[in-house]
Automatic annotation (TrEMBL):
This is Sigma-54-dependent Fis family transcriptional regulator. Keywords: ATP-binding, DNA-binding, Nucleotide-binding, Transcription, Transcription regulation. Residues 417-438 are annotated as: Disordered. InterPro entries: AAA+_ATPase, AAA_lid_NorR, Homeodomain-like_sf, P-loop_NTPase, Sigma_54_int, Sigma_54_int_dom_ATP-bd_1, Sigma_54_int_dom_ATP-bd_2, Sigma_54_int_dom_CS. It comes from Noviherbaspirillum saxi. GO terms for molecular function: ATP binding; DNA binding. Residues 96-325 form the Sigma-54 factor interaction domain. The keyword DNA-binding applies. One of its GO terms (biological process) is regulation of DNA-templated transcription.
Length: 438
């Protein structure tokens, strides 16, 4: 049986017509074959995989052409248009982003670089989303269905760096009980993300430079070269150019890594993104904690919108998770960490944690209703605790409420059950013995 031979010499240019023709040949082969032996089946499977890869590459090349063509369009666009244009071009982004011009510049550069195999260097403050950007580049490139391997260069001890990156042979050193693949081998045909590349020691920089130049590695304890094809994306929160001038980072490695250079602005310069991240992280935390998304009081929302976020997006995400865990239905500034809590709120809770003082006049009718509802809820809980002598379990039984949920409501309003425990006089056999009720 004659099977078609894909990838003939000189057929590097791909088109939909050519791909359809190959698919039709495959279909004809399968339709008229009375019997296929296992080797022929495996050959057809390889051919179908080749077709799939060619279609994916064509899709990414067309996306690249669209992104490049967008450059000739006027750059002046209304707020939201650049962001919407990215999404309309099937731009893969796991998360949310706003209209900050610097961030959109970075995303558009990433979109154009993704279909290529050029090295990318991402820099920015800690917590600005450098690894997310690396995943964006991988997801929008032709290697999206291949491995994505992440390496934290600052977390690997110097004596294990070469083994971690390039692997080792059995017996290469004490403890090497078996052959082991390194990160570069694991990332073959895919993407390797080198985080905190500025922490890489000079000997490790030399070995990495050799890999970039030769596309070969050697396992520790072996002289056999292994060809690796891994797209390199590196990230740092340091100024590598200045480090190279100081002699702590190799200048030739810096230029090798920064063929495409992407800089991420800090969150304090992306204020329009904060409300979007509120919603995104609240939903994410609610899903993890198996509860409804937490609501925010006007005072808390105003604080979070004006806070400087030295830890950037990572700090905001951790704050939202904290609020979702500690608060009930509505979070307030009292649920913030003490070291960043507004001073007036800290002073108020220090004087009397059970006193709720509104931070400001309600901004809307719905806020006024919410405040009134919270005050009614607090009054009900205080009245109930008085009736049961501060016994939380009894109040939970009377209200047909889970005890842990009741404890959470008490904490929300700053109510302490011990303040309501009392001596209740109940007659014993003689009718006059006081009994302590707890």
């Amino acid at each position: 049986m004659k099977l078609f031979q894909p990838g003939t010499p000189g057929s590097s240019a791909m088109s939909y017509a050519g791909l359809i023709e190959k698919i039709e040949i495959l279909r004809t082969t399968l339709r008229w074959a009375s019997r296929l032996e296992r080797p022929e089946i495996e050959k057809l499977l390889r051919q179908s995989n080749t077709l799939r890869d060619e279609i994916l590459q064509l899709s990414h090349k067309e996306r690249f052409v669209k992104a490049a063509a967008a450059e000739v369009e006027p750059t002046e666009k209304l707020p939201g248009q650049r962001r919407q244009a990215l999404l309309e071009r099937s731009f893969v982004f796991e998360g949310t982003f706003g209209d900050n011009p610097e961030l959109l510049d970075a995303l558009e550069v990433a979109e154009k670089a993704a279909p290529t195999d050029l090295p990318v260097l991402i820099d920015g403050e800690s917590g600005t989303g450098k690894e997310l950007m690396a995943k964006v580049i991988h997801a929008n490139g032709s290697r999206a269905d291949k491995p994505y391997i992440s390496v934290n260069c600052g977390a690997i001890p110097d004596n294990l760096l070469e083994s971690e990156l390039f692997g080792h042979k059995k017996g290469a050193f004490t403890g090497a009980a078996n052959d082991r693949k390194g990160k570069f081998e694991s990332a073959h045909k895919g993407t390797i993300f080198l985080d905190e590349i500025g922490e890489l020691p000079l000997p490790g920089q030399v070995k990495l430079l050799r890999v970039l130049e030769s596309h070969e590695i050697q396992r520790v304890g072996s002289d056999e070269p292994i060809v690796v094809d891994a797209r390199i994306v590196a990230a740092t929160n340091k100024n590598l150019r200045r480090l190279s001038e100081e002699g702590t980072f190799r200048e030739d490695l810096f230029y090798r890594l920064s063929v495409i250079h992407v800089s991420l602005p800090p969150l304090r310069e992306r204020k329009d993104e904060i409300p979007l991240l509120f919603s995104y992280f609240c939903d994410e935390a609610a899903e993890m904690l198996k509860r409804r998304p937490v609501k925010m009081s006007p005072a808390l929302r105003a604080f979070l919108l004006s806070y400087s976020y030295p830890g950037n997006i990572r700090e905001l995400r951790n704050l939202i998770y904290r609020l979702s865990c500690l608060a009930g239905e509505t979070a307030d500034t009292v649920h913030l960490p003490v070291d960043i809590r507004p001073k007036n709120q800290t002073a108020a809770t220090t004087v009397n944690e059970s006193t709720a003082i509104p931070d400001a006049t309600p901004a809307s009718l719905s806020d006024a209703r919410r405040i009134a509802s919270d005050e009614a809820e607090k009054a009900f809980l205080e009245k109930g605790l008085k009736e049961v002598g501060g016994t939380v379990a009894e109040l939970a039984r009377r209200c047909d409420m889970n005890r842990s949920h009741l404890q959470m409501l008490l904490k929300k309003h700053g109510i302490h059950s011990k303040d309501f425990r009392r001596q209740a006089v109940q007659p014993d056999g003689n009718g006059d013995t006081p009994i302590q009720r707890r």
